[in-house]
Design the sequence.
């Protein structure tokens, strides 16, 4: 029957509106070629609707499918993954509307729309995408109601009213289920990779890479503190520790130790193997460098997708999350690459003398990695460091002399340094003397290695912008920073940040504020800084950032622990069985109330006004002594009027004839109804 029923013009327009509504939240995850194809198909459907062109034939449809699969394979690399499945599903949804012929095809379009919206929520759960998806589901519900309409023509208002009513009735149930149903951890998981490149730190660093990163205003992560927020100058977010230096680029030395990013080495990102990574301490497999006494979580981080394993954290971090490990160099790492926005809690370890001894033991095992550098590159700075060490044979005095040098001489902090050649450190230190954190960190770490002091470069972020209204810190990519850590026997690893000497305002106040105050060079590529000169744009962006933060913290991250805390706050100590029983009874009661309101058994059945007058006439006839059967028709009652007096019989006969004329007329007139009322009073 569905194949035989045509789709009305109004229903087709609804389906075209649905296609646009579904493609809008998908646009962020669709490639440009598929967006162009969707617009072309939508225009084709519009032309078919106006009778200008014909639907595609079988051969054309088959060729289009082959071309789409080939494009996905060519441009995306593979089909058998979530992104490839979403692209093929989007193509089917787009193209099916063109060849739509009957009601069955229309319902298939609706099913594809449901699947497509669900897959898109796996790829992105931002506030914008979630709101757009909610609107798309509303349009989808309107289409579903319209296609199920039993009348000959689908109206515009009726689907809107019914869909809005269903949304309102379902909202309380959905909220109750979301808050009260136990949050069970997933039985299985999939790696969701949108395939989009992400801007962020990697496991290697060169001055050029850091320059591009600092020019980006993309959000890196947000942080909320349970207690007092540290000072701006103490916010060093360690992410990557780099020990291998080839004369220009710093990178992590050991993939088993640090866990290199496997995203580019296979279609399915694999988790780090606990047995194959002995230098990472997991909660279920603690290692000696994990402090025995760990405090309660002190801050919570919401990290944006980075496609890397690293997790930014302050000094001496620890997380009880089973997917988060503590590396021997005292930084956090995730078991899988961060392909979606995640949240994790971090505590600060209380470290003592035993921990220092373990660090010293680890240093002895890998000391060569902290002292190696290419002898044939950067000969000038090697000679400079050796000569300075001969004059200052103390590490503290050596470091202080270097800091005094960058403070007093013509060194400058800039976002646009000159390009470096083969001997990059020599050219920076002796020629142009202009650079940013990566240049200074690389030079200081190299000179420390030259004099035999173990050193390493740490990549991460420094500072961030504090939101006073929402009480959280947001760190963007332009807050990326690099500094040095060098070894001292009596102190362990000591942080050394040359940027604090050359440009202390970069460390003591937020970077964006420094740009607004024009303390650094203007960067035309820094969008956020350009917006900062417009107060209403800055205010709008801050408000939206707060909404995104609250959405992720309170909704997307509403997991079992957060649910337990909320329910204990509301109900105190409770039993899950009692809670589930109460939830079932509450939902059943709510549904019963809705059904009762819809049925309205207390309401008297509405009858036609003329019929009500006819029933009144029957009551009057029974009072006159005439036995009347209410099941008889008006014509049958006319045959029973012989016992009535002549004048009454004539009046009743005239009234019944007027009533029958009114009932069988094409339209009821108010003046005829009023005449019936007056005539009934005279009987």
Sequence:
């Amino acid at each position: 029957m569905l194949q035989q029923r045509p789709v009305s013009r109004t229903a087709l327009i609804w389906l075209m509106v649905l296609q646009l509504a579904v493609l809008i939240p998908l646009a962020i995850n669709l490639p440009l070629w598929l967006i162009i194809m969707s617009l072309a198909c939508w225009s084709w459907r519009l032309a078919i609707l106006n009778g200008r062109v014909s639907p595609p034939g079988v051969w054309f449809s088959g060729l289009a499918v082959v071309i789409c699969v080939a494009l996905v394979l060519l441009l995306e690399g593979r089909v058998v993954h979530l992104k490839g499945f979403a692209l093929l599903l989007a193509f089917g949804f787009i193209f099916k509307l063109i060849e739509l012929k009957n009601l069955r095809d229309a319902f298939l379009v609706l099913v594809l729309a449901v699947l497509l919206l669900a897959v898109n929520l796996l790829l992105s759960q931002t506030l914008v995408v979630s709101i757009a998806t909610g609107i798309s589901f509303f349009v989808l519900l309107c289409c579903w109601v319209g296609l199920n309409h039993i009348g000959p023509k689908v109206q515009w208002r009726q689907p809107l009213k019914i869909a809005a009513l269903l949304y309102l009735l379902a909202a309380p149930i959905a909220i109750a289920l979301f808050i009260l149903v136990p949050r069970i951890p997933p039985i299985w998981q999939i790696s969701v990779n949108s395939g989009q490149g992400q801007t962020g730190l990697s496991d290697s660093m060169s001055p050029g890479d850091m320059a591009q990163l600092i020019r980006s205003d993309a959000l890196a992560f947000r942080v909320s503190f349970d207690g007092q927020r540290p000072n701006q100058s103490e916010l060093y977010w360690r992410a990557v520790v780099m020990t291998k230096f080839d004369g220009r680029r710093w990178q992590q030395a050991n993939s088993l130790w640090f866990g290199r990013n496997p995203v580019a080495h296979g279609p399915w990102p694999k988790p780090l193997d606990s047995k194959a990574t002995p230098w990472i301490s997991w909660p279920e497999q603690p290692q000696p460098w994990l402090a025995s006494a760990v405090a309660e979580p002190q801050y919570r981080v919401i990290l944006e997708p980075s496609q890397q394993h690293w997790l930014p954290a302050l000094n001496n971090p620890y997380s009880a999350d089973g997917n988060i490990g503590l590396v021997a160099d005292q930084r956090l790492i995730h078991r899988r690459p961060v392909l979606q926005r995640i949240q994790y809690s971090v505590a600060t370890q209380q470290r003592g003398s035993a921990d220092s001894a373990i660090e010293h033991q680890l240093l002895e095992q890998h000391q060569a990695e902290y002292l190696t550098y290419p002898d044939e590159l950067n000969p000038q700075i090697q000679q400079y460091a050796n000569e300075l060490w001969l004059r200052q044979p103390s590490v503290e005095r050596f470091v202080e002399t270097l800091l005094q040098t960058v403070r007093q001489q013509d060194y400058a902090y800039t976002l646009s340094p000159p390009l470096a050649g083969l001997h990059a450190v020599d050219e920076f230190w002796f020629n142009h003397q202009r650079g940013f954190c990566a240049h200074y960190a690389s030079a200081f770490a190299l000179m420390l290695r030259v004099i035999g002091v173990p050193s390493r470069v740490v990549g991460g972020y420094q500072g961030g912008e504090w939101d006073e209204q929402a009480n959280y810190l947001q760190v963007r990519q332009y807050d990326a920073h690099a500094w040095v850590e060098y070894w001292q026997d009596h102190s362990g690893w000591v942080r050394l940040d040359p940027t604090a000497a050359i440009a202390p305002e970069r460390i003591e106040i937020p970077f964006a504020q420094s740009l607004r105050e024009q303390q650094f060079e203007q960067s035309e590529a820094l969008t956020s800084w350009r917006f900062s000169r417009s107060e209403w744009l800055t205010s709008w962006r801050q408000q939206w950032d707060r909404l995104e933060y609250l959405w992720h913290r309170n909704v997307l991250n509403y997991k079992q622990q957060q649910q337990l805390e909320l329910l204990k706050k509301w109900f105190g100590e409770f039993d899950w069985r009692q809670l589930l029983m109460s939830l079932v009874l509450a939902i059943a009661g709510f549904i019963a109330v809705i059904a009762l309101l819809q049925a309205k058994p207390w309401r008297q059945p509405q009858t036609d006004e003329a019929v009500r007058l006819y029933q009144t006439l029957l009551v009057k006839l029974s009072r006159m002594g005439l036995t009347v059967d209410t099941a008889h028709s008006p014509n049958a009652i006319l045959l029973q009027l012989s016992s009535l007096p002549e004048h009454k019989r004539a009046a009743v006969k005239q009234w019944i004839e007027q009533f029958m004329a009114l009932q069988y007329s094409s339209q009821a007139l108010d003046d005829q109804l009023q005449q019936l009322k007056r005539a009934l009073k005279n009987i």
In short: The chain has a mean pLDDT of 77. The first helix runs from residue 9 to 26. The first strand starts at residue 204 and ends at 205.
